[in-house]
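Request: Mind sharing a record?
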Amino acid sequence: MKQTSHEWSKESLFAKAQLYAEVMFENQDSNWQFGLWSAFVLEMLVRAAIANVSPVLLADSKDWNNLLHALDRPTKKQKFVAKSASITELIQRVEDLIDGFTREHSNFCANQVARRNSEVHSGNMPFENLGTASWLPNFFTVSQILANEIGESLESLFGNTVAEQAKEEISAFKDDTANTVNDTINAHKTVWNDKNLEEQEQARKQAETVSLRHYGHRVNCPACNSIALLQGKSAGEAKKEVTDDGIIERQVMRPETFQCVACGLKINGYSKLRAADLGNTYISTSHYDALEYFDVDLDDHIRDMMADDNNEY
């Protein structure tokens, strides 16, 4: 990133948010890196939104020389190093400055920053087992609010492909009707509990036999706790790795459908899957023979696949 304006300017801070966003989605298949970089993106967006009002509002008020720095004025203080306000304080300032930025948004940003601080200042790994469904829709929602506030968009921040994904996540997040899926789950749970133990065990064995990992991502059914399958669509570009045994391709997948053979529960749509706590992304891993892989006519998308594994997070 080439520095073209003041380091506390809206332009510089948004450019850095774009850079961090690019790195973030390069690591979409790694939970802890994906989450960690999201916190860096949020901080730059918060700072850019404040700088859009005035860079002076970024300054730590304990030393008035910080105000001079924000105004791009020289200071006579020796060994002076400009200091901005803490990100926690800046999040509070954004809430006061932007009408559409609510306390819920503030709390989300504060929680992501707290996880980031724990990640970089301790031995904890708070993002490692944090499913994307619990934070990604909020992240995109807040990003859209802050980007719009400074005259930017999801497209200018993330690029067209990720922006499309972001809008789908935001739409699903706002879908209040998705909560009706819990009624469906409870209905199937009631029918399941009416079965005797022998019927339940037979159904569970059948479900485990047919729910193979190369057909989808194996999860426990929320109605009967049997092995069931999630199937999804790709989110982002696949990563390829050349090994001695061939080519390994890893693709981040966002769940779209769920089916349990044991109790018959079916759920269609990401918003409903989120409401059912089945919305976390997963990794589909495919293994290819190297000779066959490089002989493929990519224009026709003909690939001779050896095996799929949809059970990596």
